[in-house]
Amino acid sequence: MKLDALIDGIALRRSGPEVEVVDLTSDSREVLAGWAFVALQGEQVDGAAFVPQALAQGASAVFSASGVNTPETTANCTFLGDPRLQMADLARRLHGLPDEQLALIGVTGTNGKTTTTTLIRQLLRGAGVGCGLVGTVLNAAGDREEEAVRTTPESPAFYRWLHRSVEAGDRASAVEVSSHALCLGRVHGAHFKVGVFTNLTQDHLDYHGTLEAYFEAKYRLVAQSGRFLVNADDAWGRGLLEREGHVSYAVDRPACYRAHGLELGPTGTRFTLHSAKGSWEVHSPLLGRFNVYNLLAALAACAEAGFDLDGLVPAVPKVTGAPGRLERVDCGQPFGVMVDYAHTPDALEKLLSEGRRLLPPGGRLHVLFGCGGDRDRAKRPLMAAAVAAGADVLWHTSDNPRSEEPERILDDAAPGIPEAIRADGARYHRHADRRESVRRALADCRPGDLLLLAGKGHEPYQEICGVKYPYSDRSAVEAALGGPK
Ligand SMILES: CC(=O)N[C@H]1[C@@H](OP(=O)(O)OP(=O)(O)OC[C@H]2O[C@@H](n3ccc(=O)[nH]c3=O)[C@H](O)[C@@H]2O)O[C@H](CO)[C@@H](O)[C@@H]1O[C@H](C)C(=O)N[C@@H](C)C(=O)N[C@H](CCC(=O)O)C(=O)O
Ligand SMILES: Nc1ncnc2c1ncn2[C@@H]1O[C@H](COP(=O)(O)OP(=O)(O)OP(=O)(O)O)[C@@H](O)[C@H]1O
Ligand SMILES: N[C@H](CCC[C@H](N)C(=O)O)C(=O)O
Ligand SMILES: [Mg+2]
Prior knowledge:
Layout: H1 3-7, E1 12-15, E2 24-25, E3 36-39, H2 51-56, E4 61-64, E5 75-79, H3 83-94, E6 103-108, H4 113-126, E7 131-134, E8 138-141, E9 144-147, H5 155-168, E10 172-176, H6 179-183, E11 192-197, H7 205-208, H8 211-223, E12 225-231, H9 235-243, E13 247-250, E14 257-264, E15 269-275, E16 278-284, H10 289-304, H11 309-312, E17 327-328, E18 336-339, H12 345-358, E19 365-369, H13 379-390, E20 393-396, H14 406-413, H15 419-422, E21 428-430, H16 434-444, E22 450-453, E23 461-464, E24 467-470, H17 473-481
Parallel strand pairs: 2-3, 3-4, 4-5, 6-10, 6-11, 7-10, 11-12, 12-13, 13-14, 18-22, 19-20, 19-22, 20-21
Antiparallel strand pairs: 1-5, 7-8, 8-9, 14-15, 15-16, 17-18, 23-24
The structure holds ligand UAG, adenosine-5'-triphosphate, 2,6-diaminopimelic acid and magnesium ion.
2,6-diaminopimelic acid is lined by residues 151, 343, 372, 375, 399-400, 455-456, 459.
């Protein structure tokens, strides 16, 4: 696209020649010939420092907040408004307003975003409707799938994926909208046909400060959504529904979309979905009560986006959800092992109650967990308390210490575990090396026990001192038990 057309109507000061802008990025490392580089002031560094690198890699234009030096052959634009919002405006225009050409469904909430968005994509594709995905595990458009780096990418990548969806003929796209994304304008400008609020419990207080501020961040999605679908069984969701008229879903309370007659079995789930338009019998291989909420949210979101439930419900038995969520690892061992991505107090509490439900009589529930480094310190003892309240045997270890000292993270969490449990050498085991902790837990399991490995889910690494070492809970288990069955 020509620069003049790209910046038309956007408040900025411009110098230098008219150029062709092939694409846009705020990360100099991604710049290719003809791309525009947006230099943003970050928390760690000022993106302006990377202008020389962007130019060396062939940037045709540079955008910045406070002005930078560029050669005469490069277009140079200085934003006059909020740089992140203006970057999103540019990205949206460059990629042809792709949100307007898709049934865009945005999902926010503390837990269940990845699962719900993945279910939306799988359900729609199962019913023959092309659907993209932007989220923690995968970014996808048509059949193209790439591993994601973060939950919601910066606006240039967000709009690029939507554009790819349009090009691939997708009719919809399901997007995980994190609270960080809403604060940092990563999805600014996008019109979501349907927005979804799954739940709100403690997380990310390092970033937002208070739960109220965390909620307000998520609440921003309402203003960008045509219809808003809210979990009426969640306390924050209920508060929202009492103040404003939105579409609701629930299991325990009256709602526009409600699941009745839950049957939560060891190999799958059944319930009846009621809405004003009719009733459907839903059978799914997904386990656990929280997945009823995710299925309900996914089906209701698709229905609110205009897709027919008669076509979607038959696809439910084939949908598997996201990898690394309540997923069994079977190496022929005489006890159960499951990996899951619970990394908040609420998710752990819910995971452990599913574990208890799945545990054979007389078996012991083992839970291996850790708390992420460089994340909300206040949630650490609460995570530990949730595990202590529901597990028979605790395996306390590391989960992405990032830049922090692993033992200090373990120390932060430990007070959440009652002293009597910590003093009991048969019930409480602390070891910072996760792989070794997995080995020890497996060695301690007896026939009929169940070991839940929480927090890492699909993640293929352990991040220590800023380095991502190859690691996954599944492969650690398979290596210790001699390979998959
Ligand atoms: C709070 C937050 O989200 N921070 C993000 C933000 O950091 P920042 O603004 O401080 O950036 P910075 O590292 O100081 O760099 C400044 C600028 O220089 C650029 N740069 C930097 C280095 C370089 O070589 N070249 C270059 O151009 C960067 O791209 C950036 O634009 O912009 C960076 C570049 O895009 C991100 O890496 C960084 O995410 C950090 C790593 C992060 O961990 N974010 C997590 C907390 C996050 O966003 N999580 C949410 C929610 C998770 C969930 O609950 O699902 C998510 O959406 O993933
Ligand atoms: N609807 C739900 N309510 C509560 N807990 C849930 C729900 N769905 C999933 N969980 C728990 O939360 C974990 C993470 O689920 P999922 O990845 O879908 O959430 P997310 O919101 O995408 O998380 P993230 O913030 O890391 O992106 C699951 O492994 C499970 O333990
Ligand atoms: N999206 C979440 C993922 C946490 C995953 C867990 N393994 C951890 O490192 O705490 C975050 O960035 O906080
Ligand atoms: Mg996610």
